[in-house]
């Protein structure tokens, strides 16, 4: 056969093979636009998904064989496209399995080059899978595919030349089909890889949108779950999810009852009902995500229920199961892997929000317990000292004793009244004044009081029993150790959105060696207990940045500084 004849045959074969590969490319394009096929391409796949990929790529590869053109007792074909694409896209297991299936099929068909071509296809699937495992190709997948495709064709041609007999027939065949098969398979692999790559990119975009949606829902539901898991918070959260998704209904339960059900089916999936669907009971029993793709799998007892598929996600708080999140859809077989991952993500976010709510509640309870403990500790101590002072005035100055008794009763009346968590600064200062009046009666001219209070601060709410312990600490541990006593200054002013309050004494100060530890619990076995208690309550209520600040110079005095946020919600609830 002359060179010109060979060239004509090569061109003719190339055109036909490219036409055949176009059919495979169209098939790949249609597949790439099906949701089920796109979901098969992800970082980790199940055994069932791998089997599905092996079936699809083996079908493509075998079709490439049947699309082949008989020539000189052999087939010019595009079989290797399927095996190589399988390995590059889905890894060594899928690539090897596809290569073995399609290669053995080629050997089964027979022909004087069947064994060599079949072995080459098997090797192509193995190599492509190895390349996927080693270099994880991304944007340049098609280039890698072209190189491997041409290499496998050349390997196949080499095997034919070495092992096929007679040699003259083998050489004639190779000279005719090497270039057309290399060209067609290279184009097929490149087109196939680009199509699948675009499909994967599309899937990534969908996943990103799902993540964005989950974050929006998490942000919208955070204020509600701060109140814990209850019918009110559950209803608001479910309404947010229903608004932001394509779900037909959303429900939230505790371990026994439906806290809320928003959307379709609310006539028989009613708030307050005991959990009754088979799917939800399975989720609570297994403590894992359960999925129903059909109405029968949901297990609703209402035959006309409009809910056809559902995802039920367990809700945890501190590793303890507390309820479920249920997302329903109006169509059967409507759930994808992304929908399930989206629901799982919401469940994890809601669990974190519930845990934060529990921690906040615990901090509030701790603050209340500390406040009660401080009252129980200080009031008896102060009472005994005040009564001793009043007794000493009963004979020498009965009128003063009478006034002090009135002041003492006023002090304890306010102590009982301030069982509230928050009081106005004015009320707290009146409480402090009652205390200081009694202390001045004890220590006379040794104790001087100065005030600098911005009138705009008087109606702002602060935690109850905050200033009196600080003032008492200044009197007892700052001034009384000095023979000539000293002065206490109380300052309150608004700075930005905060009230700054300072209590300053010119007493003995705090030794530098213990200043860093003075606010720690239990330090001093009584010395500084008021400071530590107030400090911990402020941190529990407002956060660590609102801890007390102490500035003290030994022998010169101490200033205790606190900053109270101007919080309208606290003012109302006070």
TrEMBL record:
Record has Amino-acid biosynthesis as a keyword: no
GO biological process, one term: cell wall organization
Broad class of where this protein is predominantly found: membrane
PROSITE patterns membership: HIS_KIN (PS50109)
Membrane-spanning ranges: 12-31, 51-69, 81-101, 107-130, 142-164, 170-196
UniProt xrefs under InterPro entries: Bact_2-comp_sensor_kinase (IPR050640), GAF (IPR003018), GAF-like_dom_sf (IPR029016), HATPase_C_sf (IPR036890), HATPase_dom (IPR003594), His_kinase_dom (IPR005467), Sig_transdc_His_kin-like_C (IPR004358), Sig_transdc_His_kin_internal (IPR010559)
A Gene Ontology molecular function term of the record: phosphorelay sensor kinase activity
Keyword entries, A-Z: ATP-binding, Cell membrane, Kinase, Membrane, Nucleotide-binding, Phosphoprotein, Transferase, Transmembrane, Transmembrane helix, Two-component regulatory system
Gene3D superfamilies associated with the record: 1.10.1760.20, 3.30.450.40, Histidine kinase-like ATPase, C-terminal domain
Protein location: Cell membrane
Top class in the EC scheme: transferase
Catalytic reaction annotation: ATP + protein L-histidine = ADP + protein N-phospho-L-histidine
Known EC number: 2.7.13.3
Residue ranges annotated for the Histidine kinase domain, each copy included: 467-568
Entry keyword Signal: no
Name the UniProt record assigns to this protein: histidine kinase
Species in which this protein is naturally found: uncultured Sporomusa sp
Native organism taxonomy: Bacteria, Bacillati, Bacillota, Negativicutes, Selenomonadales
Gene behind this protein: lytS
